Amino acid sequence: MIAEINFFDKDYQTESARNDAEFGLFDPGNSLPAITTTDGTHYQALVHNPSRHMLDFVAIDHNIVFVKPDGNQESTCDAMLFDGTEYLAFVELKDVASGWITEAIGQLENTILLFKKSHYYKDFKRRYAYAANRQHPVFHYSLKEEMQQFRNDTNFLLRVKNNIEINY
Q: Which of 1, 52, 130, 144 could anchor a disulfide with 91, C-beta 3.0 to 4.6 Å?
């Protein structure tokens, strides 16, 4: 059994909260955790925050380690954005041409299930999961069934796009 882990522990927050109107999320690869960026060119997802809500960013993959009983690591998504009690989003960042959606959805779902072992998800009114791919900023196929199944399984809304809108 995997031990409960506090996703909000300050030890996991490697960046200060930010209220930029726009910033990017970037997974540098090479076993490094995801980061935020205002570079404008190096990102897999772009966060639009026109009301400038104060958002915390926590890298999950390569930062919060979950070890299965067999000694292997759990597959998790790249990051989490949250503002306290209103907004929570998990984000999987990709930069590949094909064959990525099923894996991204699986990583998001697994991370949310791990999160639920330690936290009461209903504390957040707006709950999202983003599968973002720089090479496919807008996905042109309907994933209606997958999105509904994801919501049934996790109680989070799944979005397959690389624009994250913070508009409440």
A: 130
Long-range contacts of 31-34 (CB under 8 A, 24+ apart): 31/62, 32/62, 33/59, 33/60, 33/61, 33/62, 33/63, 33/78, 34/59, 34/60, 34/61, 34/62, 34/78, 34/79, 34/91, 34/93
**pLDDT band, residue 141 (cuts 50/70/90):** low
What does the pLDDT average to over 65-94? 93
Using an 8 Å Cβ cutoff, are 44 and 162 in contact? yes
Residue 155 in this model has a pLDDT that exceeds 60: yes
Q: φ, ψ for residue 83 (rounded to 5)?
A: -125, 5
In the predicted model, what is the mean pLDDT of the chain? 92
Q: What was the pLDDT predicted at 4?
A: 80
pLDDT at residue 31 tops 70: yes
Name which of 27, 94, 95, 82 is nearest 53 in CA terms: 82
Residues ≥6 apart with Cβ < 8 Å to 67:
2, 73, 74
Q: Which of 58, 57, 77 is nearest to 66 (CA)?
A: 77
Of 48, 131, 146, 140, nearest to 95 (Cα)? 131
